[in-house]
């Protein structure tokens, strides 16, 4: 079962993944069933993460380490370290290329978190890594990883997730600021989720902040119970 659009702190995110997420890209070590990407579309974001018209995540690779006085934004994003080992860019690049060339039949499963505010994150859900390109940004070459949103189900099955089901990061940021980071019904500041005021199944949209609000788990459950009573 997925828990998309849950609002969590950085420390909660670390506890969920059982690792210190100091890097924005963490490729699976084989013990974990998925890789991890941390994204941001905030104005102060270091990288240019975006979504295309089909809802696919376009995730920008990461710069070389800041060492020896180099300007990270003037050199190509690296595939390998100075010792010849794969960087995280390289690991994701190889996985994408192996899938494109049919060396691997199943694409890499990636869990994505998005930054909402300082110390505040939201679960974006699971994606499958389907493509990668190296492009010029006018100054140097950067990697662009293409990921398609999916619904994860039991027995590790996945299904494509319709792009209009995803709440855009820009909408989440606006709603966070508007609702002041608390449940709009009871004022709680813990166990928060982004909620569709008019459910998607009833014609509600994810694409405007007018239909999105912040609810705590208790109020969200109460809303679900009321909907079930109306249906029954």
TrEMBL record:
Coiled coil regions in record:
none
A Gene Ontology MF term for this entry?
A: endonuclease activity
Q: Which CDD domains match?
A: HNHc
Leader peptide range in chain numbering? none
Q: Where is the HNH nuclease domain?
A: 170-221
Q: Pfam families, from UniProt? A: HNH
**SMART domains associated with the record:** HNHc
Full protein name: HNH nuclease domain-containing protein
């Amino acid at each position: 079962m997925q828990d998309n659009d849950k609002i969590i702190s950085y420390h909660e995110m670390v506890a969920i993944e059982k690792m210190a997420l100091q890097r924005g890209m963490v490729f699976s070590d084989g013990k974990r069933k998925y890789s991890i990407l941390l994204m941001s579309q905030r104005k102060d974001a270091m990288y240019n993460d975006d979504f295309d018209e089909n809802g696919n995540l376009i995730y920008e690779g990461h710069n070389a380490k800041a060492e020896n006085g180099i300007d990270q934004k003037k050199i190509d994003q690296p595939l390998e370290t100075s010792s010849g080992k794969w960087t995280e860019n390289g690991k994701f690049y190889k996985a994408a290329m192996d899938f494109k060339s049919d060396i691997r039949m199943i694409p890499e499963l990636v869990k994505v978190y998005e930054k909402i505010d300082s110390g505040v994150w939201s679960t974006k859900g699971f994606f499958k890594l389907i493509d990668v390109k190296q492009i010029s940004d006018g100054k140097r070459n950067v990697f662009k990883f293409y990921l398609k949103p999916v619904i994860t189900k039991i027995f590790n099955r996945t299904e494509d997730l319709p792009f209009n089901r995803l709440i855009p990061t820009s909408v989440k940021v606006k709603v966070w600021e508007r609702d002041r980071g608390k449940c709009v019904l009871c004022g709680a500041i813990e166990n928060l989720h982004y909620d569709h005021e008019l459910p998607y199944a009833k014609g509600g949209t994810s694409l405007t902040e007018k239909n999105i609000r912040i609810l705590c788990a208790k109020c969200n459950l109460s809303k679900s119970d009321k909907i079930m009573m109306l249906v029954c």
